[in-house]
Amino acid sequence: MKKIVILFVLTIIFSRCNIGAGTLGSFDDRRFPIKKSDFVTAVDSLTEKQIPDKWKETATGIEHTYEFMKENTCLYLKDNPEEMYFVSYNGSQKASVISVRSVFKGGRWYTKNDFDKSEIERIEKRFDEEIIEQIERKTRTKAERIN
Question: Span of the secretion signal (predicted)?
Fold first, then answer.
């Protein structure tokens, strides 16, 4: 009974993520020609992983809700507009892939299907310029964008 109560409470807490049922979908993948362990080291060193206190509960909630994805994290982007990207990544000994799964802004999570074409491209461009370019510098590799 105690486990059921705990599960119920966690479900209520994490349901605040406002993501509907079904798949999250994905923005375009970025493929890096490096082994997963090196890729994870680069991602873990990003300053964007420092989530402000006001969004920590939201970040933790979505990371736990989608922990079946194994490797996921939230990345905080402070300005113009202030938003947070929920990303998932995976890899092998030869390559690693990362993609934005959802975007938090204005107090709620959005998936790719919630945006028009111009907003999708703005998010993809920002992800490339503010996140992917940092990972490329840290790993001395070039990512390939796969749609």
Answer: 1-21
